[in-house]
Give the backbone structure.
Amino acid sequence: MDKSFLGAMEAITGTIHENKEFLTDLDRAIGDADHGHNMARGFHAVMEKLRASPPADLSTGLKTTAMTLISTVGGASGPLYGTAFLRCAKVMQGKDSIDKTDAVQLLGESLDGIESRGKAQPGDKTMIDALKPAYDTFAAASEQNRTFLECLEEACKAAEEGVNYTKTIAARKGRASYLGERSIGHQDPGATSVMLILKALTEYYKSL
Amino acid sequence: MVGLVIVSHSAKLAEGVAEIAAQMAGRELKLVAAGGLQNGGVGTDAVRISNAIAQADSGDGVVILADLGSAILSAQTALEFLEEPARERVRIADAPIVEGAVSAAIQATIGSPLGEVADAAEQARTLRKL
Amino acid sequence: MRQVMLTLTNPAGLHARPAAELVKAAARFKSRIVLEGNGKKADAKSIILVLGLGLRQNDSITIRADGEDEEAAVQMLAELVKQRFHE
């Protein structure tokens, strides 16, 4: 299999590792102070598995990623990210590279998976508030025949704006929803990790 | 006989709840604890839960009792790993974990069907302690 | 239809373990079995309903069975109450 999948996963793992304390601090303000550590534990376990037995193809690699996150993250982000990666594994069945159309489908399926698993909607102050604008923007940019990199960069910008938007709204899902209005002013850790992952992928793509 | 799976962020808590429920139930009851992470840490693991469901299911179905937050998400995710018709006969009970497990265990022991065992768990919230 | 009225003498009343014993015993019979006490009625084969009676020590309880094995059912459940659920 193409080395770029392992490279991309390493880039994500590196970003999550660097932002472990940052994500946990964000979660401390409105959640249970474990998002960064949970995500780091999960992605490190993913890398260990992928390195120990390199997957035969993209779909298998994504499935290994999904199952490992599901069983090692421990918090809500495990099943949520796990479901997203499972959906991605399905999209990539029988394919060995990702073009723009695939990327639109990957983002769309991830969004759908997370929405249906977490029963969250835009404006609930969750991962969705970064992922949905990223998907919408990527899809629109792809329609306008922008390059893969331009699509990615615009999607990242949209995700960042989404993260900023989560500062202005009250949480309606997860532990943070117990705080209600008091969660306003804090950015959502889940939306932040979505944004960080997209950024890591974009930087990695640029470096190729 | 309907089986039970106890899901908790803590392996010890899941085992403890199973211990209390087992004491009230019959020996034949399949009662499987699925708590914590593989490395011994606190959290829930959908793969572990899915294996527990398979272990608890003797064909009559399984009721899952779960603690908080992501325990429910993980239990729902675990269902995705099951094949039909096994998935169809699993109920995640919206119930307090200890009281729900005890009542479901007793109801399952006397051979009640899946719906009644799940109801016994969910209605446990109506019992007053004082 | 057969019925018997007794007083709960065991200290815990119809609490979790005694209730579980009673429900498990009731489930062995085909008859419909109803417990009555504290102004409430409960299907003796439902743990939640039995616990919901909230019966305590010295409360009175009526056991009523209706069906082909009603006599044996009432006799056995009454015995369980009299034996104070083997506490």
